[in-house]
Write a structure and sequence with these properties.
The protein is mainly beta. It folds into two domains: about 1-55, no CATH class; about 100-275. The protein is built from three helices and 20 strands. It has helices spanning about 1-15, 50-55, 110-120; strands at about 20-30, 35-45, 100-105, 125, 130-135, 140, 150-155, 160-165, 170, 175-180, 185, 195-200, 210, 215, 220-225, 235, 240, 255, 265, 275. The strands form five sheets. A six-stranded parallel β-sheet has the order 3-4-7-10-13-16, covered by helices on one side. A five-stranded parallel β-sheet has the order 5-8-11-14-17, with no helix packed on it. It is elongated and about 95 Å long. About 35% of the residues are buried.
């Protein structure tokens, strides 16, 4: 809250720099115990450096350079798993062609909730283009397999927005679930009421979060253990985490709350994959 208040005061000071400043000073001249004369000073500060002021006031450009990171405008190749069950990073290139899979097309939040609860290994839950109002937390119902993960996706990035007014949108507590090409937006009236888009917990090994955009949550992703189980070997790649305004909350904005192991950090500009074992830690980039 202190940083929010400081930013607001700085904004107000910058706006005041549009106008001249007038300073009037009055000072006495004293000889012995007597005031003999008075001095009056008038100072005017005229803001001639307008370009400097404009640069301070100017909004950031609508589209900042992505540097090859963040959500891609096209669908990517499916993230596969190696022989140990760890997800492989994908390239930024568009997917060559769709792989035939058992697909359940959903067109409403009720259908999505039922599909997430009922999906079995190898199934794809695909959201039809549109906006979905999520008011109650969804929980994964069944485990996927490394050879047959369960996928929740939009066919095209940006075509689906899930508008969340719950403390957390999805609790992932089963292994080998993949979330692709989805836009998640917190829309709670009180910022404290929109904590996490995805809460990856306990048995949720091998969770993949690929090509998503997650905005306006206190901590977009939370990853932690439960009952002695840890959601290790996850992948976060080509996803954008952002907030449209400062968060009025005690939580830390734009953070991952991690507690798992064996998470690879990927950069599309790097020639090789770098592995980071964080104790504990679950993180990703690009």
């Amino acid at each position: 809250m202190a940083r929010i208040s400081a930013a607001q005061k700085n904004r107000e000071l910058t706006q005041r720099n549009r106008y001249p400043d007038l300073t009037l000073g009055v000072s006495p001249s004293q000889v012995g115990s007597r005031i003999t004369t008075w001095g009056v000073m008038l100072e005017m500060n005229i803001p001639l450096q307008q370009e400097s002021r404009r640069s301070q006031e100017r909004e950031p450009p609508a589209k900042l350079p992505t540097l090859g990171k963040g959500q891609r405008p096209h669908a990517l190749a499916a993230a596969g798993y190696d022989t140990t069950g760890r997800p492989r990073a994908v390239s930024a290139a568009p997917a060559a062609s769709a792989v035939a899979q058992a697909t359940t097309l959903v067109t409403s939040m009720n259908e999505l909730s039922a599909a997430v609860a009922a999906a079995l290994p190898g199934q794809v839950v695909e959201l039809a283009p549109g906006s979905y109002a999520l008011q109650q937390t969804l929980t994964t119902g069944h485990a996927g397999l490394a050879s047959q993960p369960i996928v929740v996706r939009a066919a095209k990035p940006g075509s689906v927005e899930i508008v969340v007014t719950a403390v957390q949108a999805v609790v992932v507590n089963q292994p080998y679930w993949v979330f692709e090409n989805l836009n998640w937006r917190g829309a709670c009236l009180q910022h404290d009421e929109c904590d996490h888009a995805l809460h990856v917990v306990g048995q949720a090994r091998g969770t993949v979060i690929l090509n998503n955009r997650i905005s306006d949550f206190n901590a977009p992703l939370k990853i932690n253990g439960q009952d002695g189980a840890w959601p290790d070997d996850g992948l976060l790649q080509f996803s954008t985490l952002t907030n449209s305004a400062p968060r009025r909350t005690w939580a830390i904005s734009l953070s991952l709350i991690p507690a798992a192991r064996h998470m690879s950090i990927h950069s599309p500009t790097a020639p090789r994959r770098k592995k980071a074992r964080i104790a504990p830690g679950w993180a990703g980039c690009c």
